Amino acid sequence: MHLVLIRHGQTPSNVLGLLDTGVPGPGLTALGIDQAAALPAALDGRRIDVVYASSQRRSQLTAEPLAADRGLPIQVRHGLREVAAGDLEMRGDDDAVHTYLTTIAAWMRGRLDVRIPGGPDGAEVLARFDAVVTEIEDHVQAIAGPEGGAAVVTHGAILRLWASVRARNVGNTYGMRRPLHNTGMVILEGGSAVGWTALTWTGTAIGGPGLDAGVARGPAGGDTLARPDGQAQSDGQAQSGGQAQSGGQARSDSLARSDTAPALGARPDRDSARRT
Question: What backbone phi and psi angles, to 5 degrees, belong to 268?
Fold first, then answer.
């Protein structure tokens, strides 16, 4: 099956650069509404048998145009929500964003016991997302068989984490250096039993450059989710199980390209990289 993972459209908290991870959370900005409206055309020709979204409003609002276009209900699941910021909630200062992102980086490196202050550890986050993905697989298999597809509208940090550590053809830290702006998208194929293969990682709005929010994308969407350059490894190199290809109307990066992004945990310039 194919799993189309889409980050939600822009929110007011994205524009302000806040760690806004509560439920139900904010709605969409005018740009976010336009980004959501562009999804049906951007995914035209892509088989989608089910549409899922998180319990956070921005995810559901982003999914609505696509679900309406396909005549499908939106299946809302709490397990698809963003990584909770805990004690860092609604903060946008450099120290808070740095702590949030470096904790997720530690999870990508296998340190799942590390906990966000007042929030979850990595094992808890991955377990609840895995559970929903398994449900989605069973749902698609029941109504469409192995060739079916699902669209899942979720969030920047959880999407970058889960896709990186569950796709077998990229390193676990792959998502550290790949931005995922609002309505960016990752497509995978396979399944939990046989393994997932990442096909594309589209880091900008899939509706095209005119809908990309640039720096106003929220802390979880920018280049700051990456490791220091001095620790460069093969995060971006395709491994056994197939090599992802670039594609789509928006900028869609090859998963085998070299690492050039700033460091995860590096304190970003407020004017160029501060903005889940």
Answer: -70, 155
Residue 230: CB atoms within 10 A of its CB come to 6
What is the tens place of the pLDDT at every residue in 70-106? 999 999 999 999 999 999 999 999 999 999 999 999 9
Percent of the chain predicted with pLDDT > 70: 80
Whether residue 155 lies in the annotated active site:
no
Two tokens, residue 244: 């992802």
CA atoms lying within 13 Å on the CB side of residue 119: 23
Place of tokens 């997720």: 104
* Close Cβ partners of 162 (under 8 Å, ≥ 6 residues apart): 5, 126, 129, 130, 133
The catalytic position among 2, 64, 78, 82 is 82
139 has catalytic annotation: no
Question: Which domains can be identified in the chain, with CATH numbers?
Answer: 2-273 (3.40.50.1240)
**Measured distance CA(18)–CA(169) in Å, rounded:** 32
- What b/e string do you get for 183-206 counting C-beta neighbours within 10 Å, with b at 16 or more? bbbbbbbbbeeebbbbbbbbbbbb
5 DSSP β-pair partners: 152, 186
Query: CA-CA distance, 226 to 34, in Å (whole number)?
Result: 29
Q: For the chain, where are the alpha helices, taking DSSP H only?
A: 12-16, 30-37, 39-42, 57-70, 94-108, 122-144, 156-166, 270-273
Are 163 and 188 contacting, i.e. CB atoms less than 8 angstroms apart? yes
